[in-house]
Amino acid sequence: MQGQAQQQAYDRGITIFSPDGRLYQVEYAREAVKRGTASIGIRTSDGVVLAVDKRIPSPLLEDSSVEKIHKADDHVGIASAGHVADARQLIDFARRQAQVNQLRYGEPIGVEGLTKEITDHIQQYTQVGGARPFGVALIVGGIENGEPRLFETDPSGTPYEWKALAVGADRGELQDYLEEHYDDEAELDDGIGLALDALASVNDGSLLPSEVGLATVDVETETFDVFDQDRIADKLEETDLLADPDAEDDDE
């Protein structure tokens, strides 16, 4: 019984390390990320692609209300996986940091600098009692000094830089797909195709425009660009991934 009580103490205590050096609440926060629908980030030679699986749970839900891709600044976009409310708090924090940097220094914030501001904020919630870690992972992508940059934030508060990554549900399968098909020399359109191919690979080989979110930040304009459903449908048609909505109805 005593051993079990000690185990529960480590389990519940956010700031307490277990004897084997683990913070259980941070690990549970990572599990919460896995329960969120997938998000993908891809760095190409001329920009960054963010793509997300929105998976609308009901035909009565307005798909525009499912927000998984966000604009942090003119040159930075963020995709999330995990608890939506936690993501919104971190997005708001990121936007404030971008504005503060612009006002204080008269220049846009760097993608790496913004990511580390976010992860420093996340880390505080793993070290202070009375609060829980953020149950969300973010993909932060943008242009810095004319170069595309792509980062991940982890519930522990650790930043990672990637060429391509997936977070959320099916991460293992998506990461394997990206590792197999990623090309360092790929251009932005190729990156969009790869992101959509990866999402389709875990969704029966096809996608509906209403269930996909897509955005890019290209080197030339350094501008965050969100695709509407018509543009997403065009991309899905180009890549032969467009699902037949009538077939979906027949299955039901």
From TrEMBL:
GO biological process assignments: proteasomal protein catabolic process; ubiquitin-dependent protein catabolic process
Keywords linked to the UniProt accession: Cytoplasm, Hydrolase, Proteasome
SUPFAM superfamilies: N-terminal nucleophile aminohydrolases (Ntn hydrolases) (SSF56235)
UniProt entry tagged with the keyword Zinc: no
Source species, domain of life: Archaea
Recorded GO MF terms: threonine-type endopeptidase activity
Activity modulation comment: The formation of the proteasomal ATPase PAN-20S proteasome complex, via the docking of the C-termini of PAN into the intersubunit pockets in the alpha-rings, triggers opening of the gate for substrate entry. Interconversion between the open-gate and close-gate conformations leads to a dynamic regulation of the 20S proteasome proteolysis activity.
Database matches in InterPro entries: Ntn_hydrolases_N (IPR029055), Proteasome_alpha (IPR050115), Proteasome_alpha-type (IPR023332), Proteasome_asu_arc (IPR019982), Proteasome_asu_N (IPR000426), Proteasome_sua/b (IPR001353)
Sequence ranges assigned to domain Proteasome alpha-type subunits in this UniProt record: 10-32
A cellular-component GO term for this protein: proteasome core complex, alpha-subunit complex
SMART domains recorded: Proteasome_A_N
Subcellular location: Cytoplasm
Quaternary state and interactors: The 20S proteasome core is composed of 14 alpha and 14 beta subunits that assemble into four stacked heptameric rings, resulting in a barrel-shaped structure. The two inner rings, each composed of seven catalytic beta subunits, are sandwiched by two outer rings, each composed of seven alpha subunits. H.volcanii produces at least 2 types of 20S proteasomes: an alpha1-beta proteasome and a proteasome containing all three subunits (alpha1, alpha2, and beta) that appears to be asymmetrical with homo-oligomeric alpha1 and alpha2 rings positioned on separate ends.
HAMAP family named in the record: Proteasome_A_A
Record-stated family: Belongs to the peptidase T1A family.
Functional description taken from the UniProt entry: Component of the proteasome core, a large protease complex with broad specificity involved in protein degradation.
Protein's UniProt name: Proteasome subunit alpha
UniProt lineage: Archaea, Methanobacteriati, Methanobacteriota, Stenosarchaea group, Halobacteria
